[in-house]
Write a structure and sequence with these properties.
7-stranded mixed sheet; 7 strands; globular
Length: 173
């Protein structure tokens, strides 16, 4: 039975193998072990019987923006809905965090369109999201397509709306 869960330290080397397999084929950006360890909390993995079958990460970028990245599925398992399930876990987490918009940079826009993402101009994204692109061998002439999906927003707390003013019954120590 396939299980999707948050990644663990013991998954990192297998995650890197899977992601970098797709990176060598020009389908995504390669990831170093250091980068994967530092961002481990962002990742979900799909596994079955101890074998890693897929990865996806949700990385928050700003108050209202997060990125789905490193979506990879093992050869022979593509087309099975596994990538969709991984991205859906990321979107559910984004919604639970109160993120209003999720973007992806991809060479496979059709996959994300099936999940409700729409194409946008790359210039619509804040400059800070392009920091990883500086490492890419195709920068600045990358062919990745920017995709965006709006999520239902939970109402922000009154405390957050007051730009840092403490709530009346909060304790300061």
């Amino acid at each position: 039975m396939i299980r999707i869960r948050k990644a663990r330290m013991s998954d990192v080397e297998k995650m890197q193998d899977l992601i970098n397999h797709h990176a060598k084929a020009g389908r995504m950006l390669a990831r170093s072990l250091l980068e994967l360890y530092e961002n481990l909390r962002d990742f979900y993995v799909a596994s079955e019987g101890g074998k890693l079958l897929g990865t996806a990460a949700l990385h928050t970028s700003w108050e209202d923006l997060a990125e789905v990245k490193s979506v990879s599925v093992a050869e022979g398992r593509q087309g099975s809905g596994l990538g969709r399930k991984l991205v859906e876990h990321c979107l559910a987490e984004a919604a639970a965090l109160g993120v209003g918009r999720v973007f992806a940079l991809t060479y496979v826009p059709g996959f994300f369109e099936k999940l409700g993402f729409t194409r946008i101009e790359r210039s619509e994204l804040p400059h800070r999201v392009w920091a990883e692109c500086l490492r890419c061998p195709e920068f600045p002439d990358c062919g990745e397509i920017a995709m965006m999906r709006a999520l239902p927003r939970k109402r922000r707390s009154r405390r957050l709306r007051k730009a840092g003013k403490p709530a009346k019954n909060s304790r300061r120590g």
